[in-house]
Design a protein that fits this description.
single chain, about 400 residues
Length: about 400
């Protein structure tokens, strides 16, 4: 009689992935909190410094699907290239104390980002037992937001012009260390079998041909659009109400911290109780209400309450939809995740641009974000039936 040996989860791979995921966000947002100081140090405009961050979502929209196809065909190689490119990009910024080297480093790291972030479902599927995958996806996505937190904290501590090189050195050291840990953790392929639903070359056809994946990708545009617009323009929108830049920065930091906590805790409970659709409806509805309250009663106190609640409920939407993709797509999970990330980044660009045009009209801008969230509620509610038909995680 043949004895079936259960393959255990390899959490070291998830820890390594979490570190690399955090590194991508750290490199991306290094200059988000020191735009004015950086423009003075490097002799360029604030808009030019802004492009050091904006190249990431722009290239993500272009490279997300190709990166997903690479991961579906050569998963370990693609992810390791992403980790190494992130470290190289962070290190290149140290070559010269000028804007050109900063931009080159950011471009390299922005090419790496989709290879890393699109891999969150693939690494859990290959290195974790099925029962542990919702937790693994939650940890992986929470680490992405944790990287944002580290970037904001680092910018607050090293905010002077002469401290920017120290910030870059610390970011490079973290990125290199994360890449080395990833190289060790992924020295062997994952032992868990990923269900094959079709040839790898047809991964995009498999992912986009699935009605549920198309619905989820379309839905992702709205919550991520609101989150990106809120984090980008909250300070400017609250300034007319007497909220200082320092207070607004603190509000946004707490917002992301709440998102990290929510992403680590909420999705696991939601998947266990098969309440994905209900949670998405709740998140979008509460976000719309919070934006309305910010429009009518703008203040520091309302900013702390409303934006923190938005972070706690809205950011967990990402690991929830990615877990659905992992269960649905099999070996096309890299491309499926790529569709979700691409849609989210596209939504972030579109909604942020719209809100940016209304930055001098805070009431209208907050109401626009409320409307974007509300538009997605029927779509979230309509997911209840197709989600119920999925095989639940064991």
């Amino acid at each position: 009689m043949t004895q079936v040996v259960a393959v255990r989860s390899k959490w070291s791979a998830i820890v390594a992935y979490a570190l690399v995921g955090a590194a991508t966000q750290l490199v991306w947002l290094n200059f988000a909190g020191v735009t004015t100081v950086a423009s003075e140090r490097y002799g360029v405009s604030e808009s030019a410094i802004g492009w050091l961050a904006q190249v990431f979502p722009l290239l993500y929209v272009v490279l997300s699907i190709p990166a997903g196809l690479v991961l579906d065909r050569w998963f370990r190689t693609g992810l390791l290239i992403g980790a190494i490119l992130t470290a190289v990009g962070a290190s290149v910024r140290l070559i010269g104390d000028n804007y050109s080297w900063l931009l080159v480093g950011q471009l390299l790291a922005s090419v790496a980002q989709p290879l890393v972030l699109n891999a969150v479902t693939g690494i859990t599927g290959r290195y974790l037992a099925e029962k542990d995958r919702p937790t693994g996806i939650a940890v992986g996505t929470a680490s992405v937001f944790a990287g944002m937190v580290v970037a904001f904290i680092m910018a607050a501590i090293l905010a002077d012009a002469d401290e920017l090189p120290t910030m870059l050195w610390l970011s490079a050291a973290f990125s290199v260390l994360a890449a080395l840990i990833m190289l060790v953790a992924l020295r062997k392929p994952g032992e868990h079998k990923v269900e094959r639903r079709g040839p790898v070359r047809g991964a995009l056809k498999i992912a986009w041909g699935d009605p549920l994946i198309r619905r989820v990708a379309l839905l992702a545009i709205f919550p991520f659009g609101v989150f990106v617009a809120m984090t980008t323009f909250a300070q400017a929108l609250l300034e007319p109400a007497g909220v200082s830049a320092e207070t607004a920065s603190t509000i946004l930091l707490i917002n992301v911290v709440a998102g990290v906590i929510g992403s680590a805790l909420v999705p696991v409970w939601v998947v266990r109780h098969r309440a994905e659709s209900s949670l998405l409806v709740l998140s979008l509805s509460v976000t719309a209400l919070a934006c309305c309250l910010l429009a009518v009663f703008p203040s520091a106190a309302m900013g702390f309450i409303a934006i923190t609640v938005i972070g706690f409920l809205l950011l967990p939407a990402l690991p929830i939809v990615l877990e659905l993709v992992e269960r649905r797509t099999g070996e096309a999970e890299g491309t499926g995740a790529g569709l979700i990330w691409m849609a989210g980044n596209l939504g972030g660009l579109v909604v942020a641009v719209a809100v940016g045009l209304l930055v001098d009209h805070p009431l209208v801008a907050f109401l626009v974000m409320a409307g974007v969230a509300l538009v997605a509620v029927p779509g979230a509610r309509a997911l209840r039936k197709p989600i119920a038909e999925l095989t639940p995680p064991q």
